[in-house]
Design brief:
Strand content: 5-15%
Distance between the termini: 29 Å
Radius of gyration: 16 Å
Order of helices and strands: EHEHHHEHEHHEH
Number of strands: 5
Strand order of the largest sheet: 2-3-1-4-5
Helix content: 40-55%
Length: about 180
């Protein structure tokens, strides 16, 4: 399979980066948070608030473990790395890409932490979450793209450079 699976902290830009990358490569795009919402008919935050983080993580693992896509850029939720089973399945379908961003930038971007549907334990701070997840992102990453100080286009170009991918020519468009 030839998917690119994006992992990283909430607000690191997985979904935005993923859409632009998919367009640049002529691939499909899927956001697994939206798959969870479609499967359950509920918002992520509603599941976390009413059923608890453990139940949310079970649902997420089930959805991720059953992803069966090809030629797709897949943006996962930030908590995907909590499931070894799901990550192993995703790794079998393509290359796992960690979108790395320093804590300060995540903290600056993330202003809706209580409503965004982030799997956090009660009392856990964003800093705690970052410090707990970064080693997991590094563990599962096949490639790391540090997007600090880059705009979206530069981030996609950096990915393509690291993956040794040249932009596909579009018919009728001169370079």
């Amino acid at each position: 399979m030839n998917n690119y699976i994006l992992i990283g902290m909430p607000a690191c830009g997985k979904s935005t980066f993923g859409v632009v990358l998919a367009k640049s490569l002529g691939m499909s795009f899927v956001d697994t948070d939206l798959l969870i919402q479609k499967k359950t008919g509920r918002l992520l935050q509603d599941i976390i608030d009413n059923d608890g983080m453990d139940e949310f993580l079970k649902i997420e693992e089930s959805v991720l473990s059953n992803v069966d896509l090809d030629n797709t850029v897949i943006a996962t939720g930030g908590s995907a790395v909590y499931s070894d089973k799901a990550m192993k399945h995703l790794a079998e379908t393509g290359k796992i890409v960690y979108i790395e961003l320093p804590f300060e930038e995540i903290n600056r971007r993330l202003n809706n932490i209580k409503t965004r549907g982030i799997a956090m334990a009660p009392g856990q701070t964003l800093s705690d979450l970052y410090n707990a997840r970064v080693p997991l992102y590094q563990k599962y990453a096949g490639i790391i793209i540090n997007t600090a100080g880059m705009n979206l286009e530069d981030s996609v170009l950096e990915f393509m450079k690291k993956m040794n991918i040249s932009r596909p020519a579009v018919k009728g468009v001169k370079k």
